[in-house]
Amino acid sequence: MALREIRKKGDPLLKKPSREVGEIDGRVRQLLEDMEETLRQVGGAGIAAPQVGVLRRLVVILPWEESGLEQPLFLVNPRLAAAEGAQECMEGCLSNPGWWGKTIRPQRVRVEALDREGTPISIEGEGALAKCLCHELDHLDGVVFWEKAICQVFPQEQSQ
Predict the structure, then answer these.
(1) What's the Rg (C-alpha) of the chain?
(2) H or E stretch including 35?
(3) Which pairs from 27-30 meet CB under 8 Å and 24+ separation?
(4) Annotation marks residue 37 as catalytic
(5) Which 3 state secondary structure label does DSSP give 130?
(6) Average confidence (pLDDT) over 12-29
């Protein structure tokens, strides 16, 4: 496994749509492992392949208390299959460190994807997990949250 450099705001690659993964081979699995290691190193919740410079539809999400996950999610070619409700969210991003903003995201989502072995899976997320899934799927479409934010909230305001 290897740590990958995280692309930052202003990198044109972050604004490009990702291509679907064809065959899930050793290179794809290695990239997913590298993404997981990078995510653990920086302490984030989720990461999409474009954030490490690869325009492929790959996402890794680590478990955290509010997620309801028991193990990491490795999503290949994920797509939003259903969404309902709305929630106002506080979001940050590894590609724009120190910047926080409020967004409106679905309250509940269902995402369909392949796991890292190529098995079809369906993930249902609510609240914080729904927010994270939508945030990472946006990255795959070249959409960055800071352009969708309804307002910016500075770090000191976030804790209030």
Answers:
(1) 15
(2) helix 26-42
(3) 28/56, 28/58, 28/76, 28/116, 29/116, 30/1
(4) no
(5) helix
(6) 97
User: According to the annotation, is 89 in a ligand binding site?
Assistant: no
The residue from 37, 88, 126, 136 that is catalytic is: 136
Could you tell me the residue ranges of all domains in the chain? 12-158
Residue with tokens 């996402």: 59
pTM here is 0.92
Interior angle at CA 79, CA 124 and CA 19, nearest 5? 150
How many alpha carbons fall within 13 Å on the CB side of residue 50?
27
CB atoms within 10 A of CB 101: 21
Each residue of 75-128: pLDDT tens digit? Answer: 999 999 999 999 999 999 999 998 899 999 999 999 999 999 999 999 999 999
CATH 3.90.45.10 fits 12-158, yes or no: yes
Does the annotation flag 135 for ligand binding? yes
Distance of alpha carbon 118 from alpha carbon 23, whole angstroms: 8
Residue 93 is labelled as binding a ligand: yes
Longest dimension (CA), the chain: 47
Q: Which residues pair with 153 in a beta bridge?
A: 100
